[in-house]
């Protein structure tokens, strides 16, 4: 069994990842289950840089394999904002309601055809010595609605409309989200690489 630490305290991200990773071969633990983990400062200018920071610094500190991810929303009409600041767009980290309110305010008066957006996810795996061993990324395109709809998911999900479904991620069930989301697409690229790496370590 390969022991893997997920470099986040976000319980909802842990649930999504557990549904996608082969649990018969990988023992997945979140930072919330580990005493002595550190808070890594996200000073990177890109999702990829932040994912690498969170993976390598935590891995060295814990002396364990760490999978970290950095994800967020980029909105074309806002020149890519909120980007790496997605979780703290309104100021306080993780305040989904405030972040959604700010996004709606920034897009006030912007017509549907100019409200295109993209969810981005970058994954980074570090070995216990702090060396990056694997990376992967995934995206999911959509459009920002004019009001919240649905209470599933988290983050900007109640505003993020999937065009082919005419619904937000907040309205779609987890099965659909798992098939379409930026995180699941990044994982589908990542998992085969991880399984090859695990095999090479045996």
From TrEMBL:
One of its GO terms (cellular component) is cytosol. Mg(2+) binds at residues 41, 70. NCBIfam families: RdgB/HAM1 family non-canonical purine NTP pyrophosphatase. Its EC number is 3.6.1.66. GO terms for molecular function: dITP diphosphatase activity; ITP diphosphatase activity; metal ion binding; nucleotide binding; ribonucleoside triphosphate phosphatase activity; XTP diphosphatase activity. Belongs to the HAM1 NTPase family. SUPFAM superfamilies: ITPase-like. Homodimer. One of its GO terms (biological process) is nucleotide metabolic process. This is dITP/XTP pyrophosphatase. It comes from the Bacteria. Pyrophosphatase that catalyzes the hydrolysis of nucleoside triphosphates to their monophosphate derivatives, with a high preference for the non-canonical purine nucleotides XTP (xanthosine triphosphate), dITP (deoxyinosine triphosphate) and ITP. Seems to function as a house-cleaning enzyme that removes non-canonical purine nucleotides from the nucleotide pool, thus preventing their incorporation into DNA/RNA and avoiding chromosomal lesions.
């Amino acid at each position: 069994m390969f022991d893997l630490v997920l470099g986040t305290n976000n319980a909802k991200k842990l649930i999504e990842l557990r549904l996608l990773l082969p649990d018969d071969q990988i023992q997945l633990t979140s930072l919330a289950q580990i005493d002595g983990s550190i808070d890594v400062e996200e000073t990177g200018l890109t999702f990829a840089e932040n994912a690498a920071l969170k993976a390598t610094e935590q891995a060295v500190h814990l002396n364990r394999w760490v999978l970290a991810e950095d994800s967020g929303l980029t909105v074309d009409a806002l020149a890519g904002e909120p980007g790496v600041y997605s979780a703290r767009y309104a100021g306080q980290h993780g305040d989904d309601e405030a972040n959604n309110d700010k996004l709606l305010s920034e897009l006030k008066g912007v017509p549907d055809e100019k409200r295109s957006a993209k969810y981005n996810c970058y994954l980074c795996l570090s070995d216990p010595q702090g060396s990056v061993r694997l990376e992967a990324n995934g995206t999911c395109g959509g459009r920002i609605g004019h009001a919240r709809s649905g209470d599933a998911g988290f983050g900007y999900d109640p505003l993020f409309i999937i065009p082919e479904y005419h619904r937000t991620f907040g309205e779609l069930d987890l099965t659909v989200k798992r098939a379409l989301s930026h995180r699941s697409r990044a994982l589908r690229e990542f998992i085969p690489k991880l399984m090859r790496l695990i095999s090479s370590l045996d």
